[in-house]
From TrEMBL:
Highest rank taxon of the organism: Bacteria
Site (Important for catalytic activity, responsible for pKa modulation of the active site Glu and correct orientation of both the proton donor and substrate): D137
PANTHER family registered for this protein in UniProt: ENDO-1,4-BETA-XYLANASE (PTHR43772), PUTATIVE (AFU_ORTHOLOGUE AFUA_2G04480)-RELATED (PTHR43772:SF2)
Record's protein name: Glycosyl hydrolases family 43
InterPro entries: Glyco_hydro_43, Glyco_hydro_beta-prop_sf, Glycosyl_Hydrlase_43_Enz
Biological process according to GO: xylan catabolic process
Family named by the database record: Belongs to the glycosyl hydrolase 43 family.
Gene Ontology molecular function: hydrolase activity, hydrolyzing O-glycosyl compounds
Pfam families registered for this protein in UniProt: Glyco_hydro_43
Gene3D superfamilies given in the database record: Glycosyl hydrolase domain, family 43
The entry's keywords: Carbohydrate metabolism, Glycosidase, Hydrolase, Polysaccharide degradation, Xylan degradation
Length: 335
């Protein structure tokens, strides 16, 4: 009997797993890493992914993992030029909606939608990105009342930082120190409130945002927003799941390499910071999803152990996740 954690598809490099249960089977929608030969840079220029695959299984611990093949290629997406990064899929009224992040021909990340009749695709992309969308790492969450929310955003490569410019911070009276540039948050004084993920309700047809985006505020135990200098503040890779009526917002801290989580009472938050879910893995990025399947909870994530690479050749992994009686999550063991 195989023991978790387990690598999921050793024949290819997949990352940024979004795990979802459709029709009683577990599907994982990852980014598809490959060796493009692009130089490493701070904006993630080395992540030149060009297509998506979907994998599935019916037994997380022992089951065979099926790769259903390519479900969408950047050449099929009229508005997207390159860098097909993280994505997620949700079912609504018998259709499957894949929301993904990619760069347009101006070098700006947006979110796009592609639609399918089956979880394994093929997915047909919309001609334009979602209006007013920006940044990366979409996570789709359906609440018990059927409303669907999209959480997204990331710094550096995800350009979330452009939406709080140095000019804006200066107007707010923030002393940016000697070297302000586009990585504002990271050059800002440690006590500036951290930039946040965004959340937005999706339109009924799942093709647009239904409202203006909201900031996902993470508070410390004293009710104050986490600060830019806190190694546990948001950076990228939002995920939302619900457990015992509470909303669990989890995320990557990017340059400090943790997966952390916070709990709230509704999809918009605020969320109160709880702790670290997973310590840093091998590789610069860390990214995850949390799902319940056949009565057990799982954390899907990635690391760079099989490729022996530090950045862009990542492999999928899964480990069990356990809750304490008070609803907090036990830190997940990577070994
Ligand atoms: O896969 C490219 C980027 O790396 C993702 O968008 C981030 O979350 C990080 O995993």
């Amino acid at each position: 009997m195989a023991k978790l954690p387990r690598y999921l598809f050793p024949k290819d490099y997949y990352a940024d797993p979004s795990a979802n249960v459709f029709n009683g089977r577990l599907y994982v929608y990852p980014s598809h890493d490959w060796e493009a030969g692009a130089a490493f840079d701070d904006d993630g220029g080395h992540f030149q992914m060009k297509d998506y695959h979907v994998i599935s299984m019916d037994d997380v611990e022992n089951g065979e993992v099926t790769d259903h093949g390519m479900i969408l290629h950047v050449d099929q997406v009229p508005w997207a030029e390159k860098q097909m990064w993280d994505n997620d899929v949700i079912e609504k009224d018998g259709k499957y909606y894949l929301v993904f992040s990619a760069k347009d021909y101006n070098g700006v990340f947006h979110l796009g939608v592609a639609v399918a009749d089956k979880p394994e695709g093929p997915f047909v992309p919309q001609e334009h990105p979602i209006r007013s969308s920006f940044s990366i790492d979409p996570c789709l969450f359906k609440d018990d009342d059927g409303q669907i929310y999209c959480y997204f955003g990331g710094l550096w490569g995800g350009q979330l930082q452009w939406y709080k410019s140095p000019e804006k911070l200066l107007k707010e009276g923030v002393d940016l120190g000697p070297a302000p540039d586009k990585k504002t948050q990271l050059y800002a004084p440690a006590d500036v409130p951290a930039l946040s993920s965004s959340v937005v309700r999706m339109s009924d047809d799942m093709l647009q945002f239904a409202e203006a985006t909201h900031e996902v505020v993470i508070l410390d135990k004293e009710g104050k927003p986490l600060k830019a200098g806190d190694p546990h503040r948001f950076f990228e890779a939002s995920w939302m799941h619900k457990y015992n009526g509470k909303y669990y917002f989890s995320y990557s801290t990017g340059d400090s390499h943790f997966l952390c989580y916070a709990i709230g009472d509704n999809p918009y938050g605020p969320f109160t910071y709880q702790g670290v879910l997973l310590d840093p893995v091998v590789g610069w990025t860390t990214h995850h999803s949390i799902v319940e399947y056949k009565g057990e909870w799982f954390l899907f994530y990635h690391d760079c152990v099989p490729s022996n690479d530090v950045t862009h050749l990542r492999s999928l992994k899964v480990q069990r996740l356990f809750y304490n009686e008070d609803g907090t999550i036990r830190k997940v063991e990577n070994e």
